[in-house]
Amino acid sequence: MIRVLLADDEAMIRSALAALLRLEADIEVVAECADGTQALAEATRLVPDVCLLDLEMPGLDGVEVAEGLARRVATRCVVVTRHARPGVLRRALSSGVSGFVPKTRGAGDMAEVIRRVAAGGRYVDPEIAADALSDERCPLTDRELDVLRSGRRGETTGQIARALSLAPGTVRNHVSTVLGKLGVRTRQQAVLLAEERGWI
Predict the structure, then answer these.
(1) Full-model pTM
(2) The CATH fold of domain 2-134
(3) What's the rounded Cα separation, in Å, for the pair 75 and 73?
(4) pLDDT digits (tens, 9 = 90+) for 59-111
(5) How many Cβ atoms sit within 10 Å of the Cβ of residue 39?
(6) Could you tell me the residue ranges of all domains in the chain?
(7) CATH 1.10.10.10 fits 142-196, yes or no
(8) What distance in Å separates the CA atoms of residue 153 and residue 133, rounded to the nearest whole number?
(9) Which of 77, 78, 139, 147 could in theory staple to 99 by disulfide, Cβ–Cβ 3.0 to 4.6 A?
(10) Helices (H), the chain
């Protein structure tokens, strides 16, 4: 049996997918989680074979959950998303995610992806992969992305500095560089652009 954890903040989608996967003879749904924090805790406790993680969840997103699990337990992760931005795919793959699938796929397709990933393979939706190959590269450094990520909910320069163990002046310098590179006027505009492109 392939033991699967599902995490999606939309209860109807989560319960419907769980019900359909339970019809598969070789798949056992061991947990259903409503957010990323719960998914990380439950997956650490249960160590399922595969975690099926919605990309956009409260608390931790699917990629952040996968990153956390990679440091804790031997479980394989598939990220499912409604908005398959190429930059997010690159972020997911660099975090060790084994599968990347749009929510438009049916339960039968999802079961096949789960089987492939559980057997040690990888799966990336072909259309997302093609888009990722043609998408422009992120011009920001990892540290600049960290600054944007830490300030995406309107945190002050001081809060970002404390979170990243940087001096406030260093944070301001990074923000100034980001604004110049992206051609925007405010940090919030930079965050929105980076989110749209899937860089954070």
Answers:
(1) 0.69
(2) Rossmann fold (3.40.50)
(3) 6
(4) 899 999 999 998 889 899 999 987 666 677 777 888 889 999 988 888 889 99
(5) 31
(6) 2-134, 142-196
(7) yes
(8) 30
(9) 78
(10) 11-21, 36-46, 62-70, 86-94, 107-118, 126-134, 142-150, 157-164, 168-182, 187-196
